[in-house]
Amino acid sequence: MEQNQQNQINPQVRKPQPIDFGAIWQAIKSNRKLYYIVLPIAFVVAVVIAKSIPPYYKCEVMLAPEAGGGGSSMGQLASLASSFGVSLGGGGNASGDAITPSLYPDLMKSTDFKTSLFPIKVHGKNDKTSMTYYDYLKNEWKEPWWKDFFGLMAPEKKQDTLVNNFELTGEQARIAGMIMKNVVCKIDKKTDLISISVTTQEPYIAALLADSVQTRLQDFLTDYRTKKSRHDLEYAEMLQQQAKKDYEHARQKYVEFVDANQDVVLESIRQMQTDLENDLQLQYNNYNTLSAQVLAYKAKVQEATPAFTTLQRATVPLGPAGPKRPQILFVCLFLAALFTTVWILYKEHQLKPLLGLS
């Protein structure tokens, strides 16, 4: 009695209907001709898509940064510098380095690094002339036809100007974006192993670029980590050259004075000779000290220079890395079959029961 009253009060409460798989199969079976139309069309579309994507090749190099690069050379130079009374200090540049291996991927995404790859010379295996990487991406890189069809690849009409990292042109920004997609750096956080992969549409160019990018990364890091030490070294070498000139001038002046006054016994002459000797010794000590400082700064530059061990060198890939045409074909056919099935179930009123809707 109470149950009947609840049903009368809540007439909308219904028990979930079980899924009728037989009805679903019958709906699909009765509309199977639709698959005979859709799947061949999907197959043709998949083939067109797969054939329209240009093949690309990938080359990968692997590096391992050596901890404390230049440590043995640093110890030898420090020992030699200490013989002149010059201390190199205990803290090296490497210990306070602001760019650790975990930041290398972000560094390679920076505008400065991407634009530094613009002038790299590349060429095909049998090509006699070379071009810059910028010109290769701008003029030789092939895109699927639909990008041109929908106006996604409209180039700029005006001539490119010099690269200004503060304000890139639209074309330069587009090329920089392509480089960011095609030149990828990954770091294994457990081992600090550096992996640099380069993707191009020519296998020989992929190997050339991978080797060049590896060199550019090492040069970029070397320039960053040794910048202050090299500046100090240049300044110390300038002072050393000036001290050498002053010493040679004082020595020449002393020699000429002694040659001209060998038989003179006047006390004033002897005093002048003593002054010249003191000045000569002072200039020599100054030159000697600055020479030791130059040696110390050379040791600091060597200590700050990063060292890498190449675990896998750049090699020309033997086959394309993509596109994966079988996968494209499978995905297109699967999606076509899925949407066709959904449409059939919707038309035959079997979709809502399948989804548990009333």
From TrEMBL:
The chain crosses the membrane at residues 34-53, 328-346. It comes from the Bacteria. The keyword Nucleotidyltransferase does not apply. The keyword rRNA processing does not apply. Keywords: Membrane, Transmembrane, Transmembrane helix. GO terms for cellular component: plasma membrane. GO terms for molecular function: protein tyrosine kinase activity. This is Chain length determinant protein. It comes from Xylanibacter ruminicola.
